Request: fold
Amino acid sequence: MERVILVGLPGSGKSTIGRQLARRRELPFFDSDQVIESRLGETIRAFFAREGEKTFRDFEERVIDELTMQGSCVLATGGGAVLRSENRQRMRERGVVVYLRASPEQLMRRLRNDTKRPLLQVADPMARLQDLYEEREPLYKEVADFTFDACGSSPALLVSRVMMQL
Ligand code: S3P
Reply:
């Protein structure tokens, strides 16, 4: 059984790297945000705006619980999934956790024109990214078996590096 779980801030490339990794390992790929949106029948941004963060996190926790019990797979998680200790514990127990690490400055360059992430729809998204980084970096480190520089190489090379560690 091989279950690889990707964590990291928004824009760190969890979905891109996860999809490529899954293809090269010939494993199914799941993206918790995509699963959530298809079940909700609307975007996370719209759901978040109407129902608030707590309701979103409750929904996300159920989806993470379910997806971390699939068989062998690669799973990309939402950037805030590590906030709940229950999610962190399930990830650690059920898979190999890979943290794609990037600085707020690097992420800002990637997310400059983003309209999808509700937490970044603020007047100063850079300050918000810095806050998210400070809050979550210790949690990503706590849960991760391996950490990789998300921006230091092309996606294909990064996938090769991850594969060599697994
Ligand atoms: C969130 C990140 C998003 C998504 C939701 C909340 C967060 O996922 O789950 O908007 O709290 O950082 P990505 O990391 O895939 O952008």
Observations:
- The chain has one domain: 3-165.
